[in-house]
Every structure is written in structure tokens, then in C-alpha cells.
Design a protein that fits this description.
Pfam families: TetR_C_16 (PF17920), TetR_N (PF00440). It comes from Streptomyces endocoffeicus. InterPro entries: Homeodomain-like_sf, HTH-type_TetR-like_transc_reg, HTH_TetR, Tet_transcr_reg_TetR-rel_C_sf, TetR_C_16. It is built from 12 helices and no strands. With 220 residues, the chain is mainly alpha-helical. 23% of the residues are buried.
């Protein structure tokens, strides 16, 4: 009888060790939040690559990340919000454009190629381009919207005449390289070394990024 009573008696909770009181809970929750967000983004990139934009679902992303559908929505609000966070955007251009005009074509080319080489066909922008190429309207809208964000960053950094036209040309060149080397992956461009691609790309975009001064007409 006494043993039964003793078994039912609540045992006191152990005292927290030094530095492990209530003050440690927020940092742990913060770490969990960051880890969950990163897991969701990685899952979104994988789902986008495997299934394309139209067939990618929030529930599939949540299952892949090991979280709930509601948690994904709390973090990102919508499928489009999730993709915007998963795909590198204008924030990645800050360091590239911050150095001024000297060496700018080389910095743009190197940053672009290094990013694409690191992810290759797994880069989420490649998957979005594939979806847009087969006329998925939502994917096309999202792609154009994200390109416009990058274009605004370029327009703020570039100098000289016809900035809007030059920024559009720059985007077209980068899109062409992306499609040939990382989507189609065929032809000489696909087999070049990254260093060679950087060199050729820098030479190609230099007159777009840094147009030569207009030639003066000699009056007779």
C-alpha cells in the first residue's frame, strides 16, 4: 500500500542548470524557426525542379520539409511568396553592384556564372524558366516580376544613355546563357569551362553595362 502511494506521489521537477532557465527558450525557438524556414526553402527548390511550378504544391513542400502546411503558409503566405523567397533576387546584386563601375562587367559575369555553376540545373530559376517556356501563365508572371526586381537594381546602378534598353538587353543575354548552358545543356557554350564563360560573358556585356562615349563628328 505504501509503495502504491509512493508511486503516485509526483516527483519534483529537477532544477534547471545554470544558464538553462526560462531565458534560453526564445533562442531555441529562434533557431528552430530559422531551421524550419531553411528546410522549407530547400524543399521548395527541390519540388520546383522535379515537378515544375504548376505541379508544385504547398502540401508537397511541407511534407518534404517535415513541417505542416500551416507553418509554410505562416512563413511565406502563399505559393508565390514561397518561390520569391526560394529564388535569389535583387538582394544578391547588392554586393555585385556596390563596387562602382570599375570591373563591373567582370563582377556581374562572375557572380552569375558562379551561382549557376553551383546549382546548375537545380537552380530554381532554371525550373521557373522551364515552366515559363511551356506557357504556364503563373510561372511566366512570376518570372517577369522577379526579373523586374533585378532590373530595378541594375537601373539604379548603371549610368549613361538608354538605361532601360540596356538593362533589358543585359537580362536577355543572361537569360540566353541560362537557357543554352543550364536548360538545354548542348553545344559549345554548354561545354566551356566556367572561367571561359565568365571571360566571354564579361566581354559581351561590357558595352551594355559601360557603353562607349558617343563619337564626335568633326565639322568641316
Amino acid at each position: 500500500m505504501n509503495k502504491r502511494i509512493a508511486d503516485r506521489t509526483p516527483r519534483p521537477e529537477p532544477e534547471p542548470a545554470a544558464g538553462q532557465g526560462h531565458g534560453t527558450a526564445p533562442p531555441r525557438r529562434r533557431r528552430d524557426r530559422v531551421a524550419s524556414r531553411e528546410a522549407i526553402l530547400e524543399a521548395a527548390r527541390a519540388e520546383l525542379h522535379e515537378h515544375g511550378y504548376s505541379k508544385m504544391t504547398i502540401r508537397a513542400v511541407a511534407a518534404r520539409a517535415g513541417v505542416t502546411h500551416g507553418l509554410v503558409m505562416r512563413h511565406f503566405g502563399s505559393k508565390e511568396g514561397l518561390l520569391r523567397a526560394a529564388i535569389p533576387g535583387p538582394q544578391d546584386l547588392d554586393a555585385v553592384l556596390a563596387g562602382g563601375g570599375v570591373g563591373l562587367p567582370e563582377r556581374i559575369a562572375q557572380a552569375f556564372v558562379e551561382r549557376m555553376e553551383m546549382a546548375g540545373s537545380l537552380d530554381p530559376m532554371v525550373a521557373l524558366i522551364r515552366s515559363a517556356a511551356v506557357s504556364e501563365p503563373t510561372a511566366t508572371h512570376l518570372y517577369l516580376s522577379m526579373q523586374e526586381q533585378s532590373a530595378r537594381a541594375y537601373r539604379a546602378a548603371l549610368e549613361g544613355p538608354d538605361v532601360d534598353e540596356r538593362v533589358d538587353l543585359l537580362g536577355a543575354v543572361l537569360l540566353g546563357v541560362t537557357f543554352s548552358r543550364y536548360v538545354v545543356r548542348a553545344g559549345p557554350l554548354a561545354t566551356m569551362s566556367p572561367e571561359t564563360v565568365i571571360q566571354h560573358l564579361a566581354d559581351l556585356i561590357r558595352p551594355i553595362v559601360q557603353p562607349p562615349p558617343p563619337s564626335r563628328t568633326v565639322e568641316r
